[in-house]
Amino acid sequence: MIKAVLFDMDGVLYDSMPSHVRAWSETMSSLGINASEEEFYMHEGRTGHSTIDLLFNRTLGRDATQEEKESIYASKAKRFVELENADSKPMPGAMEVLEKVRSMGLQRVIVTGSGQETLFGKLDSNFPGIFDKNKMVTAYDVQYGKPHPEPYLMGLGKAGITADEAIVVENAPLGVESAVAAGIRTIAVNTGPLKDQVLKDAGADIVLSSMQNLSENIEKIVQKA
Ligand code: MG
Known about the structure:
About 50% of the residues lie in helices and about 10% in strands. By secondary structure, it is of the alpha/beta class. The protein has a 6-stranded parallel sheet with strand order 3-2-1-4-5-6, sandwiched between helices. Magnesium ion binds near residues 8, 10, 45, 172 and 175.
């Protein structure tokens, strides 16, 4: 029996991925480190520090120092805030999904690789009465981050449930991998530019086209699980 739905944040609850990708792209290319936009969508879910190390290794043949990671992540986060114009955009359909999950009596848990404080601060105003600050896993809680199962295992712990009592909603391949590795049934909502097959290959049980589509199907999916 399902007792909780674990939600990823960017690209699921917020339509924030285009700004994240642009902020990453601009910040890294200003350091002479180039990567395609699609690559940032493929890395989505990693902690910022892990993404920085990966690109540093490819271009410079070494990890970034702790100081470099902190300063680069701070620049990226600052640029993200400028791009969003301090105006976070909830994903169309997200509130409908959350309302249905609440009315079914299921816990709502957030499991995100993000450390973007501006979005955490807005959860209560964008989604009133839905989330509990004690039931969130963020970049600050984890050692490994997605695609490691750690973040979703921590999410299960915070909800006090086992893997077969949860469903995950994810949009990113590495997020799907993380949830599947934690043994949780995973619904992918493909809100970005990647092909559905990438999410299926990552292990998603179902791939839907949008959060609106999920809101039309969430009750059936929970009952069948
Ligand atoms: Mg995401």
